[in-house]
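Supplementary notes for students who missed Thursday's class. We covered one full example, reproduced here. Read the sequence, then the structure, then the short commentary at the end.
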Amino acid sequence: MRIGEIAALVGVTSRAVRHYHHIGLLPEPARRANGYRAYTVRDAVLLARIRRLTEIGLSLDEVRDVLADDAGRELVEVLGELDADLARQEREIRERREVLAALLEAPLTSDGPLSPALAALLESAPTTGSPAAAKDREHLALLDTAGGGGGAELYAALRPLAEAPGVGALYERLDELAGAGVDDPRITPLAAELVAAVPDEVLAVIPDGEPSPTGFGRVLLEDYPPAQREVVRRVMEALAVRVRATRGRTG
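Structure (token representation):
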């Protein structure tokens, strides 16, 4: 192969190939009698590896160190690694397109785009003007986008809870605590009732480590005023105990 051919094959410019030669990153191949460089498959593999390493953010000096570690490896091993890397990229692109397709199928709302499962859950919940309920919707949308919400199984398990007739009254009681202090006597009974309202089916599909007033849970807690934050913190802690007890029985 000539320089233009190897550059086109790998997806770089001839100028880039010459630069890699100039800095010693890509060994310059032998020249034919007519003076043209004669590139081989190994040259193409090495050039492709340089391109991949730079694309993921490595500096040329860092690329040089990686290539030094690869020196002496069999061509078939390097080709196998390249093929595996391309397969991984194909899989990641396919998974991202599947997620995108699901988002495009879901109704576009002010919360969205949402996954179809979460959109169905929110659609099933009764309409309410409760600020606490609106905050819950925002948190679910955030968890859905961040990938920490537990997925379709959790949303399906939450549906009976969202449709329960007494949930609206619980939200109203939480709203009433918006300006209260952390010693308000309404905190303890409300937290207990909220914990009792969560069915075991929900606990069974909560991701490991959740609910928890640490990490993502801590960020959500900071979104509440003091008395409401105390209610939600107690609910998280009590549900975590129930989750451990439930999984201990089934483990």
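Commentary. The chain is about 65% helix and 0% strand. The chain has a mean pLDDT of 81. If anything here is unclear, bring it to office hours.
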